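Lecture 7 notes: from sequence to structure.
We start with the chain below.
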Amino acid sequence: MSSTNVSHSEPNPGTNGAPSALDAVKVINKSTVDYPDFKSKPRPKTADEFIERAKEVAELLALDVAQRDLNNEIPYKQIQLLKDAGLVRALGPVKYGGGGLEIDIGYKIEREVAAGDGSIGQLLGYHYLWSYTAQVVGTPEQADFEAKRYTENDYFYGAAVNPRDEDLQITESEDGKYLIYNGRKAFSTGSKISDLTVLEGVLNGAHIFAITESHQEGIKYGDDWNNVLGMRGTQSGSITITNVRVPWSSALGFVDKQFRPLGAYNTILLPTIQLVFTNFYLGIAQGALAKASRYTVANTRPWPFAGDVKAKGVGEFYVQDIYGSLQAKVWGLEAQVDAAGVSIRNLIHRENRESLTAEERGQTAVRVAAAKVQAIEIGLEVTSKIYEVMGARSISLKAGFDHFWRNIRTHSLHDPVAHKKAEVGRYVLKGELPSPTWYT
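Predicted structure tokens for the same chain:
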């Protein structure tokens, strides 16, 4: 695979798949934003610089997110923006040209991007998560190889591991040197616009992860991500894997065809990805609240039939009350989510991976579950209640607020939040820690 990303030259076909209710709306203005040349700027180096760069990117993404979302545009241009801005390699090792940042800072970068475009924030968060696959599951040599490959080339990750579908099936080549993956996944977030795809399949009862090139003859994308409600820009459509060959040496964590287990450490990708979800929910809520407040200051009119008519909408007591309540909840959620991020950091970056205990892993998982519960409830409240303080005109397509609620409402259905509440409840009542599953 060359270092030239297919997304540099592949055309954007606009709406794909079958027509939807949103596609029936006539859209005059398609995405026309020209992004600045970040390649000519110094790359960010410190955590603060990366977060500031993420804010710059979010402001650019916010300019046309409503149009791109409505048109179901495939975000080739936006992923290239993440690369040019240096965000893709933020967590990569410094020795290979990366920022060398830890996962808790990655969450904050993801969150800033999600404030401008929830779909792109999700894709970046998934990229950061999957970039740790080799570190969490693989040998030290495999982890170093994959870190070098993606960092030096600015490669972007996707994955075909949706556990609600049947597992990909793996067979061995006749000479015993290769694993051959076959199967289909109904959802494969980001793979269509990625450079590398994480595969997970089963061979003789053993689950085997491997990382392969996203654009090859044996990988076909269904172009069927025509989701009406939200997260349209993630292009989370189906993927079909046909006779995709990877060498046994790429089977993460296997040495001489035998898996080298790391105990509880092997299971921490699950709470790590749950906190990815939580952070882009929070980022979407932050973006919605900030944009709504600007709209209210500029556009919301006072109610003319009140006993005490205010000069401007911002003078209305109920407007001040709602914004104060929403901001207080968002600030509290941010502190809770950041604390969970530190917990994940302390697990994933420990030097002795095998020293991680099931209890340490469980304590972090329950904190992540609690943060996710709060993020969904507060995110849905913020993205729906802002309309009460903006006024009826804010529902227009031109105002561009609807994607905030639609995105959180859509992705928060990923796995039932009721089970996350129950996990926290069992911990409170019985001291029971969550057992590792594909969703815990």
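Points to note: The two ends are 34 Å apart (CA to CA). The mean pLDDT is 92.
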